[in-house]
Design goal:
The longest helix is centred in the middle third of the chain and has 18 residues. The model has no long low-confidence stretch (mean pLDDT 81). This protein is mainly alpha-helical. The radius of gyration is 20 Å and the shape is elongated. It has one domain. A hairpin with a 2-residue loop joins strand 3 and strand 4.
Length: 159
């Protein structure tokens, strides 16, 4: 694809950093899904989530604020494959199991864990909401990004 502005052809690159999130030439976000590892590290640094005598509701709120925000940084621009979705859902369940101190050897189903923590799967729903908000924001503005997303020719109005 060729993008030209005022007669200048924009260089096509293999990857681009947009607000700290890597956008790849093939529109895949495998590199960004690796943020799961960063999320696990952030979780493990918050020892009080495991050791603390806090109520489960407070722990859940802390996770949604401190951990989800790390993992979902830039998720507005992700194009997710089924494999990516499975990884994100597995991470979500990993967090809930850790909070409840459930070992994998206990053979608890995901539904049992979600019932115990009184939660539903929300991570993918959160990503979809962020994506819809972002695209709505982009399409409301008259900008180059809107023009590119809509696939139209850019014509600069200087009159």
């Amino acid at each position: 694809m060729t993008v030209t502005i005022n007669g200048n052809k924009l260089e096509q690159v293999k990857e681009f950093c947009y607000f700290g999130s890597m956008t790849m030439e093939d529109c895949k976000c495998h590199m960004e899904i690796k943020r799961i590892a960063i999320g696990k590290e952030a979780f493990n640094k918050r020892g009080e989530l495991l050791r603390g005598k806090w109520q489960i509701e407070l722990k859940k709120r802390m996770i949604k604020v401190l951990i989800w925000s790390v993992v979902l940084h830039g998720s507005e621009t992700w194009t997710l494959t089924k494999e990516d979705i499975k990884r994100l859902e597995a991470f979500e369940m990993w967090v809930w199991r850790r909070i409840l101190k459930i070992s994998w050897t206990e053979h608890k189903t995901n539904e049992e864990v979600l019932n115990m923590v009184k939660e539903e799967r929300k991570l993918m729903e959160t990503i979809r909401k962020r994506q819809l908000n972002w695209i709505g924001h982009i399409l409301r503005r008259g900008s180059l990004i809107k023009t590119v997303v809509e696939g139209r020719r850019f014509q600069e109005d200087r009159e």
